[in-house]
Amino acid sequence: MTFTRTLANWTVLAATVVGVGIAAAPAEAAALKWTLQDVTFNDGGTATGSFLFDADTNTFSDVNINTFLSNGNPLANYLSASGNANFSVSTTATLFPPTFKALFLGFSSPLTNLGGTVDLLPTIEIALADGFPLARSINAGTLSASATPIPTPALLPGLIGLGVGALRKRKQDEESPELEESKA
């Protein structure tokens, strides 16, 4: 066995081991950013904002939802990196910030890691408005999210190409002595 052939064999083996290792690595699904759209309350108020949701772990984070009174003045800000909010089941979100206010979000179908558009169900917000308790219900609105495809590691196609090139070189080297013998 020549040095070139040995090197080609080791290259093919290394490319195979690395390629299988990369292909066998577990896929990691990223949490999707769900955005409130056209959310209105029965008193004419609105809600805007978004949060991240990971359907695999049934958790959400980076909550940033603002609600407004019918005159456009802010009522409440539901803000959480994590922890101050929780999901129960996967069709209802209950947000309890440190002060007295609560926003309940009901979903027409469970949120998934595939994204899409989900209608909001009639649920309520309870908060203090100018020192007085206010309870109002969501009339309409949706949540939407888009899944971003996870790119294939650039290394994998390169390793496959390297392996194919090494196999071609090996085959060419094996055929070379036969060509030289036929010329003689």
Description:
The protein is of the alpha+beta class and 184 residues long. The protein has a domain at 32-146: Lipocalin (Beta Barrel). It is 28% helix and 43% strand. The protein is built from 2 helices and 10 strands. Strands 1, 2, 3, 4, 5, 6, 7, 8, 9 and 10 form a 10-stranded antiparallel sheet that branches. Strand 1 and strand 2 form a beta hairpin. Helix 1 packs antiparallel against helix 2. It is rod-shaped and about 95 Å long. The protein starts with a helix and ends with a helix. Mean pLDDT is 76; it is low at 23-28 and 82-91.
Short recap of the structure:
With 184 residues, the chain is of the alpha+beta class. The chain has a domain at 32-146: Lipocalin, CATH 2.40.128. It has helices at residues 3-24, 155-183, and strands at residues 32-41, 46-54, 59-68, 74-80, 85-88, 92-95, 101-107, 115-121, 124-129, 132-146.
Descriptive labels:
alpha+beta, Lipocalin, 2 helices, 10 strands
CATH architecture name of the domain at 32-146:
Beta Barrel
Q: Given the C-alpha coordinates, what overall shape results?
A: rod-shaped
Oligomer: single chain
| Topology order in helix (H) and strand (E) letters | HEEEEEEEEEEH
The biggest sheet, with number of strands, parallel, antiparallel or mixed sense and barrel status, is: 10 strands, antiparallel
Helix tally equals 2
Structural class: alpha+beta
